[in-house]
Amino acid sequence: MQEKGSISIHTENIFPIIKKFLYSDHEIFLRELVSNAVDATQKLKSLGQLGEFKGELGELKVKVSVDKEARTITISDHGLGMTAEEIKKYINQIAFSGATEFVEKYKEKDAAAKDQIIGQFGLGFYSAFMVAREVEIFSKSYKEETEGAHWVCDGSTEFSLETTEKSDRGTDIVLHVAEDSDEFLEPARLKGILNKYCKFLPIEIEFEGEVINQTAPIWTKQPSELTDEDYVKFYQELYPFSEPPLFWIHLNVDYPFNLTGILYFPKVKDELQFQRNKIQLYSRQVFITDEVKDVVPEFLMLLHGVIDSPDIPLNVSRSFLQADAAVRKINTYITKKVADKLAELYRKDRAGYEQKWSDIGLFVKYGMLSDEKFYDKAKDFALVQNVGGKFFTLPEYQEFVQANQKDKSEQTVVLYTTDAEAQHGFVQAAQDRGYDVLKLDGPLDSHFIGQLEQKLEKTTFKRVDADTIGKLIEKEESTESVLSDDDKTKLQELYKAAISNEQMHVQVEALSPQDAPVIITLPEFMRRMKDMQRAGGGG
Ligand code: ADP
Ligand code: MG
């Protein structure tokens, strides 16, 4: 026996679940209702362009107001409105999205509509019941000779719908705020929510007599229309009181996914100053979240700015991203754009790039360490600096050392210092003998060195106080020491006894009176082990 049928849902059971669990944050009811008002307005504009609406558009502002006494919040628009039939169709049917329907219907005639309409799940409206005990809709459609419609629902599955007098086109949504949601009757609270989610919506939003949003934020414009001042100004709007950014990347792609945005390189000196979660994610100019973990590669989380993509798959609650193939593509794209930008800066203005290196070096190294693809690009524009302050790219430095190295063996030995002051004697000794010494004293440098040793062919890194330098020095026999052999032996024994550490190498040399007569070194691997233990790695 076989039977087929359809599963039924008891709305009275589902309703409380939607109210309680669909959205993690109650405050987003305002984002959803304002988005609907914006959608309604965009649709009307679309219909106007298509010739389906021939009337006057008139004032199109969306107004949000609150009446503390009456305990109501009202969201009004002059969009396309709804007839009573449409209310039944779009509002009474949960999870039927009029937004999706509109996009489907007009996608051939008006391709832009797809990118402008925010709604997609057909659930947003019901978020009103998270904060309201009763919701009213007053609406009048743009269609000629339709009457106004009035819908009331108290959050149960019962509603009432009747005709009403409404003179102007559009929709008023009136929320009768529930006892437990008093906070939303505070104008300051509402303003905060509007600022967070609606600040860049494409239709003007008015609250308390003021327009709260910028309808055309700079990321929606073409880079050619914008000046450096525009970018800096926008940065300071996003992050008031912060230092101007070093530079920025304007993202603009429409294939294979849609994404716009601006990523800024903040001015930071050390790891502690790095602030994560400074990138804001938008979808069609509606703020979604600043948790961009899946969209932006880990090392790029240090950047600031805005990413806007209608193609980032959001779940109904929109706060959660669904990691999937599209997100991975976006991730790869952003990494590539950032690498390209750095390569361009390096190519076009090497001096300027070198000046910025102290600010971007840490970031580039972090990227190289955490992302293979980024390493492959960055290996050509990552810089190292010697104690004299001169910058080299990695290939340049390898070549330089090879040309300079007296010991013409297979291996290129790069000497470096992690503390030019404390290791001054060693640095001096190496320099006196014609060796160059790199300054690798940053917080990520020990990892960076490890990576370079793996990646660069035939190249080893030795800290100036490692025993290698002693060996290099020993190879040069030409110069006479100022100490006699006897002095040397005595000194060496004296020091060895004092240190009593077999692993340390004591070398008594002093080629000139300025030289430190005794150089005590530890094999490179020993020191690295110690460093690691100190760093808490434990090996
Ligand atoms: P979505 O926006 O995802 O489609 P919603 O639950 O937010 O779903 O809204 C359902 C539908 O109700 C919308 O698609 C739209 O057709 C209609 N609607 C909601 N608010 C308005 C409004 N202010 N003006 C006109 N239609 C609206
Ligand atoms: Mg909606």
Automatic annotation (TrEMBL):
<dbReference type="InterPro" id="IPR001404">
    <property type="entry name" value="Hsp90_fam"/>
</dbReference>
<protein>
    <submittedName>
        <fullName>Molecular chaperone HtpG</fullName>
    </submittedName>
</protein>
<comment type="similarity">
    <text>Belongs to the heat shock protein 90 family.</text>
</comment>
<keyword id="KW-0547">Nucleotide-binding</keyword>
<keyword id="KW-0067">ATP-binding</keyword>
<keyword id="KW-0143">Chaperone</keyword>
<dbReference type="Pfam" id="PF00183">
    <property type="entry name" value="HSP90"/>
</dbReference>
<dbReference type="InterPro" id="IPR020575">
    <property type="entry name" value="Hsp90_N"/>
</dbReference>
<dbReference type="Pfam" id="PF13589">
    <property type="entry name" value="HATPase_c_3"/>
</dbReference>
<dbReference type="InterPro" id="IPR037196">
    <property type="entry name" value="HSP90_C"/>
</dbReference>
<dbReference type="InterPro" id="IPR019805">
    <property type="entry name" value="Heat_shock_protein_90_CS"/>
</dbReference>
<dbReference type="InterPro" id="IPR020568">
    <property type="entry name" value="Ribosomal_Su5_D2-typ_SF"/>
</dbReference>
<dbReference type="InterPro" id="IPR036890">
    <property type="entry name" value="HATPase_C_sf"/>
</dbReference>
